[in-house]
Amino acid sequence: MRTFKIFFNTIRSMSFKKILRLLRLVLPHPVFSVLSFYATLKAYTIAQKKFPDTASTNGIGNSFRHALWCCFIMMYCCKVSSPKKALEFCKRITDLHEELFPNKPLETKMDLHNNKIGMDYFMEMLQGVHRQFFEKSFFIEGLENKMKDAKVLKDQEDDFKGFLVYLEEK
User: Fold this and answer.
1) Can you spell out the DSSP letters for 88-124?
2) How crowded is residue 103: how many other Cβ atoms within 10 Å of its Cβ?
3) By C-alpha distance, which of 145, 83, 68 is closest to 114?
4) Which residues, in sequence order, are CB contacts of 82 under 8 Å at separation 6+?
5) Higher per-residue confidence, 12 vs 94
6) From residue 83, how far is each of 13, 59, 60, 140, 148 by CA, in Å?
7) How much is the pLDDT for 170?
8) Is the pLDDT of residue 30 over 70?
9) CA–CA distance, 61 with 14 (Å, rounded to integer)
């Protein structure tokens, strides 16, 4: 119930222009949109349980949450469509999220980078597993392993290809 309250309050806080931008993306893709919303709830819930102190901040738990979010969007959307279409939608919806709810530049860079890590990780795993057989646990364990090598993002010029990134807690 708490999650739906957060969702409702988020939509309520959006300007009319932002709501229209969101609707332009989700209305032509109703199934992907519902699956993405479900993926959002699942990723948020799992990240909060595993990393209660950093999942909603800019710490390591946030990097896990963003990558997991993208893996879940891809996983659910691939069950009803092609990986290519799922990837395109995932990129568009996660990029739009960053535009609609802007952060400081370094936070945005971190979120977009970790989203890409999640999408890339899914596509990498796709080579060995048929898309219909993916399960949430595949990504949780793999991303937890990636967290061991996560890097601290300190400025806009940092480039940590293939690594999760997070901001140091102050």
Assistant:
1) HHHHHHHHHHHHHS---HHHHHHHHHHHHHHHHHHHH
2) 12
3) 68
4) none
5) 94
6) 33, 30, 28, 20, 28
7) 63
8) yes
9) 26
Decide if pLDDT at 112 tops 70.
Answer: yes
Tens digits of residue pLDDT in 121-131? 999 998 887 76
CA distances from 79 to 75, 86, 155 (A): 7, 9, 38
- pTM listed for this prediction: 0.91
**163 touches 64 (CB < 8 A):** no
**What is the DSSP-derived secondary structure letter of residue 169?**
P
Q: What is the mean pLDDT of residues 94-99?
A: 95
For residue 163, give both structure tokens: 């690594």
Q: Residues 6 or more apart from 86 whose CB is under 8 A from it? A: 32, 73, 74, 77, 78
Polymer length in residues for the chain: 170
Question: Exposed, middle or buried by CB within 10 Å (0-12, 13-18, 19+), for 106?
Answer: middle
Residue 94: name the closest of 109, 112, 117, 106 by CA. Answer: 112
